[in-house]
Amino acid sequence: MVCIVYMVAGMSSRFGGKIKQFAKVGPNAETLIEFSLNQAISAGFNKVIFVVGEKTASPFKKMFGNEYKGIPISYANQEFDASKRDKPWGTADALISANDLVSDDFVVCNGDDLYGENTFRKMREFATKNPHNDCATIGYNLMTVIPCKGTVNRGIFTVDENNYLIRIDETLGISKDNLGEHGLAESSISSQNIFFLKLGVLAMLKEKLIKFKEAHQEDRTSECYLPTELSNLVAQGKIKIKVLETPDKWLGVTNPEDEEILRQELASQN
Predict the structure, then answer these.
(1) pTM for this entry
(2) Distance CA 22, CA 60 (A)
(3) Given this structure, which CATH class describes domain 3-269?
(4) For the chain, domain boundaries
């Protein structure tokens, strides 16, 4: 089976407790997560793992149960001690929460982003035909993944002449108006948290996560970012990540007003 891990544990405070993955954005009233699942299934993924949190576990299980269109779905719980922390430990922790359910190489991605069927197909083909035993990711032009209003956090890629990753710099508070303040340009290449990873990478990430939690045990808000930890593994020479291009446009919901923009975009594609 070719497995895809969706990170859907987090709920943004911008949405007032609303699960934005359930926003009906498709031309046939598909929710955002259904639209993404349809793309992944069409691209050949045949096993799904949802990494859910305390507030998303029940709604996701109620909506999907144990399968979607004949594709099996499993659930991993991203847990944290609310008496000691204000939020979960971040995307690296979300992925490690699924450690016991992942039995082969896999693709991990966000559940509130639309990457496109061709993007999923490219990742699956890399997973099945990878001649060099490398990992992979998709790079997006930064200006295409920043909302019209407000700020976002993005992992910024630096690559070599062969499009292999040199590092990922997690950059906070990016807007269309402050690129220069962050040392960025319109041509900068961004991560959208979609990675094809070899199974053995999970053990390496788990080790790093344990050390991160020990170093930040008194911090109620620090997060262990998946791109940052993958970047560290690249720098240490433990993994290689090929940065792939995609013909698809990234679409997603960052702010509540993005829902209508996304509906219009998907309707125009239909």
Answers:
(1) 0.95
(2) 9
(3) alpha beta
(4) 3-269
